[in-house]
Amino acid sequence: MKTLLKTCGVAAFWLCVWQLLALWVGNGLLLPSPVAVVVRLGQLALTAGFWKVTALSLLRVVLGSVLAVVSGVLLAVICCRWKLADTLFAPMVTVIKSTPVASFIVLLLLWLGRDLLPVVIVVLMALPVIWGNVCAGIRNTDPLLLRTAKVFGFTRLRTLRRVYIPSVMPHFLSGCRTALGLGWKAGIAAEVLTVPALSIGKLLMEAKQYWEVTDLFAWTLVVILCSLIIEKVLMAAIGRLGRACWPGGEDA
């Protein structure tokens, strides 16, 4: 309850700051008030197109995030298991982390369709974070626990559930939280630059081009809300999956 009240208080404070700034500017074309933005968002939410566009953008980001998590975990396991794989893939991951998002978008636009490109961009931005965190978790697993598991004759599956997963899970969850935020922003940026037919990015670009600033703020608010929803839903799903494999589950 205290956390909820604190969150509401912080939100109210910044809404008041926004309102005061809007009053000080005195021009809705430059800075619309929060009331105007919420009203416009309500109007947009009453249209079928709003939900279709939002759902498609969410689908692209969620699909890219899931692919990034799965591929990042698999790549981390492979790299930690075989040094040759780590030697081969580590430079590639470093290049991905160092390359600006805009460069990837421009390059991949030559080969991929506008609808598929945001999914790939989300994967590219999120995968290195997942890979790095999972690798750190595996490599920091307590050797004493591994020796104990060997002494007691644990199977590989049981060692995975009883030793590796508890060690990796905090790193994995932290990586997922960071990767989801990066992936969502990168996915929307890809939509803005590639303007798929039905996407939040396309509507953001159109709002900017036609100086529909209230619409621009309204769609930006949609992006923020969707980001929070994605993080909560996917993190909850990942947490449940982790608890299913946690030591509290049945012995392997």
* CATH architecture assignment: Orthogonal Bundle
Structural class: mainly alpha
- Multimeric status of the protein: single chain
Number of domains: 1
CATH fold-level topology: MetI-like fold
Could you please describe the fold and organization of this structure?
It is a single chain. The protein is mostly helical and 252 residues long. It has a single domain (65-244), classed as MetI-like fold. The protein has helices spanning 2-25, 34-45, 48-81, 83-98, 101-108, 117-139, 143-151, 156-194, 200-209, 213-244. Helix 2 crosses helix 10 (213-244), helix 3 packs across helix 8 and helix 8 runs antiparallel to helix 10 (213-244). It is globular, with a radius of gyration of 22 Å. The two termini are 39 Å apart.
Blueprint (SSEs and pairs):
Elements: H1 2-25, H2 34-45, H3 48-81, H4 83-98, H5 101-108, H6 117-139, H7 143-151, H8 156-194, H9 200-209, H10 213-244
Helix pairs in contact: 2-10, 3-4, 3-6, 3-8, 4-6, 5-6, 6-8, 8-9, 8-10, 9-10
Keywords:
82% helix; mainly alpha; 0% strand; MetI-like fold; 252 residues; 10 helices
Give a brief outline of the structure.
This protein has about 250 residues and is mainly alpha-helical.
